[in-house]
Amino acid sequence: xxxxxxxxxxxxxxxxxxxxxxxxxxxxxxxxxxxxxxxxxxxxxxxxxxxxxxxxxxxxxxxxxxxxxxxxxxxxxxxxxxxxxxxxxxxxxxxxxxxxxxxxxxxxxxxxxxxxxxxxxxxxxxxxxxxxxxxxxxxxxxxxxxxxxxxxxxxxxxxxxxxxxxxxxxxxxxxxxxxxxxxxxxxxxxxxxxxxxxxxxxxxxxxxxxxxxxxxxxxxxxxxxxxxxxxxxxxxxxxxxxxxxxxxxxxx
Length: 252
Description:
The chain is an alpha/beta fold. Helix content is about 45%, strand content about 15%. It is globular and about 45 Å long.
């Protein structure tokens, strides 16, 4: 197998939660371009269907599914739908996430706390437990978590989110042992990416901070997540598991 062939995903089935926008959409389209059929799972079905049409335009099959990561039973329904349609799952990307703002730490409600932990930790755990078990019993596969630099360097406005993502880092290590040797479990740890979420940022303030705080002096473009995602999803990373890959512009 040549070096470039190791990144080929022809014949594989990939599931991407939060796959209808931002980094998730970039990964969905990259997998499809490399030959994979893709399941796009996110809360809004119409957005999933829109990305599914983009996948089909690339000549691959797509399955759009409405999925709420904080709901335990939704993971069961998603896993069942994937295996009913395709009979397999070779790559699972736990990308769905949320980090709502709050005015102060004492103003965080129980509802907000539970919602953030549910989407960012409970859902990825349950879906990985279900799909990872089936992968291990079958032909194997790759699970990719998407964490955040907030998991190790949380700002005052993302404490619950950072704590949940720290749990994701822990799952990466723990599940790599649970499902090995047939299933590889790894994690992408992104820094600030200029997705649609960044439209709410004070860009002048962010750019000033980025020039001082990051070795590359800027935020990431959404398509700059593709290299890490393709590496971890494909045979190129066949001897990589339990690893966190930081894609964060090199904080100083």
